[in-house]
Amino acid sequence: MNLYKALPLWFHKLGALKYFYEISHVISRWVSVICVICFITGLYGGLVLAPADYQQGDSFRIMYMHVPSAWMSLFIYMVMAISGGIGLIWRVKLAEIVARSSAPIGATFTFLALATGAIWGKPMWGTWWVWDARLTSELILLFLYLGYIALQSAFEDRRVAARAGAILALVGIVNIPIIHYSVEWWSTLHQGPTVSKLDKPSIHMSMLIPLLLMTLACKTFYVSSLLIRIRTEILEYECNSSWVKHLLGNNKNVSN
Amino acid sequence: MTPRKKRITIVCAIIAGMGIAATLILTAFEKNLLYFYSPTQIMNGEAPKERSFRIGGLVLENSVKKNPESLEISFILTDTVNQIEVSYEGILPDLFREGQGIVANGKLFPNNVFIAEQVLAKHDENYMPPEVAQALQEAGAEMPENHIPPQ
């Protein structure tokens, strides 16, 4: 079979919850392995191998948790809004589940970014919190996540909840470019971008590599925990279908 | 129009509508979103006169005067074009030093002295080991300064 025919077919198959449930188990396991490796090497590189900063000394090391968390908070929101939109337009069940399962992980990363930022801000800036554009827009992102989660549990019917949530997520997407460009558009206490600048990143290579490893660790953590959540959601969605009953029935037999 | 196309239109309309609304709101409130004013803006009379506001800039080299008896300190804040004298009494953040970017919260008095109630340090987006920073300085390269855009 040629690729042009095989690829759409594979996507179609992937959308089938039963097939996804079966393959996601293996993917999740391998992604977790990559996550643990990146996390250990990234943390060791960041906390032990990387040199102290010329200005901030050892305090800058909190960056290795703060920066990946902040990136993930934006990335997961984009995933949530886009898959929510796909669910809304094409009524793909799997897309609805992806959006719904992403929200708590995204909220956690947003909280981590805000908390580590406050801990970093106290010794360096001299304050836990300021109402500048970057910090305020990131706080709004946390409220968007919490609002989305609350909305999900407000509906009895999962499919109605998915549609309502998708609209909220799509409305909130306007906040993402605001967070990203806030440090460039307005004068803020938060410093400008380091890595995503168009010219070469203004961070020394020995400090950058652990940061990229930690970023990969957070990305893979998201993927593997997302897959675990999706698997649980699939079972709840499909609890009346024959394959889930069969699966659970088999398990019962094993445990007896 | 099929229901699917209708839904696509609605989603696009939501995103476009929110984008336009946000742009309008943010342009309207642009001044209020500025976290601090630069000395040049203050010289041009753009900063509020009655209430307190924040000022941002670099601490001028050799301008810091400390009172050894108390926590009183005074220094000159510059954006490399204009200068404002700042007076403060209290504990300074670790990063406070000459040449450092800082943000101070307080009031401007008619004699053009800014009495600060709080001083925060701003750090830049550059990260490097001290040896590299030293080597850069010795090579005569311009040290990365805290970026305070001239307004």
Features:
heterodimer, A: 256 residues, mainly alpha, Four Helix Bundle (Hemerythrin (Met), subunit A), 9 helices, 0% strand, B: 151 residues, alpha+beta, OB fold (Dihydrolipoamide Acetyltransferase, E2P), 4 helices, 29% helix, elongated
E-strand count of chain A: 0
CATH top level of the largest domain in chain B is: Mainly Beta
Order of helices and strands of chain A: HHHHHHHHH
Largest sheet of chain B: 5 strands, mixed, barrel
| Radius of gyration of chain B (Å) | 22 Å
Please identify the top-level CATH class of chain A: Mainly Alpha
According to CATH, what is the topology of the largest domain in chain B?
A: OB fold (Dihydrolipoamide Acetyltransferase, E2P)
Order of helices and strands of chain B: HHHEEEEEEH
**Major pleated sheet of chain A:** none
Unreliable stretches of chain A (pLDDT < 50, length at least 5) are: none
Q: Can you list the strand order of the major beta sheet of chain B?
A: 1-3-4-6-5
Identify the most extensive interface between protein chains: A-B, 42 and 46 residues
Percentage of residues assigned to helices of chain B: 25-40%
The chain-level structural class of chain A is mainly alpha
Which structural class best describes the helix and strand composition of chain B? alpha+beta
Beta content of chain B comes to: 25-35%
Number of strands of chain B: 6
Give the percentage of residues in beta strands of chain A: under 5%
Distance between the termini of chain B: 51 Å
